[in-house]
């Protein structure tokens, strides 16, 4: 399928995506089928290449992608996490990158769509990381239920989150970060990486980081591009938490 048609199909799917977390044409479960048939079991690199190949040749996916994924990998290596928390699982691609960059980390990923959780679990199982990468179905804006589940059932506690990757609903980036800060789950030196800060955009989040530069946070703004193309600019923010011990 040519590139123009693939991007037109993505634009058509965006209404469904905002409502349900999926594009509405079955591409997410087709991606899991593709990984299962094209990547050797237990091979994380092969699973990631299969997902990238599917996104480039079959149907565009809203994964962090290759260029921004490399920024995420570098931040993960800097944080060297025992526990990484992600907001926004989709097909499980970025969680897989985090698991690859931190081979002994536990990764918890929060996703509101149960259908996406199922796709991601299939891919993680195939790639051999399902014992340490977990999807929690929910959203941090649900009045505390998901936060309580992360604490009670998944062992997230004071100072335990070494790396946080924010890649879900741009309008919830700041409120969800503040909920995590209020629970005391970060420690001095925790790294928070936020995707899509320019497109679709998270201006409140960016302003918050600028206002607290050098006091609560130290942020580096990485200029990059929207996933799977090289024309549209995007921003990834990498912020180090300066509070606590
Ligand atoms: C851009 S995709 C995540 C991509 C993924 N991080 C990757 O790079 O492979 C955003 C995901 O966040 C989910 N989502 C949207 N709003 C959410 C919320 N408030 N809480 C949890 N998940 C949410 C969507 O269903 C979608 O799967």
Automatic annotation (TrEMBL):
Biological process according to GO: methylation
Record key words, sorted: Methyltransferase, S-adenosyl-L-methionine, Transferase
The keyword S-adenosyl-L-methionine is assigned to this record: yes
Gene3D superfamilies cross-referenced by the UniProt entry: Vaccinia Virus protein VP39
Enzyme Commission number, as recorded: 2.1.1.6
MF GO annotations: catechol O-methyltransferase activity
SUPFAM superfamilies: S-adenosyl-L-methionine-dependent methyltransferases (SSF53335)
Protein name: Catechol O-methyltransferase
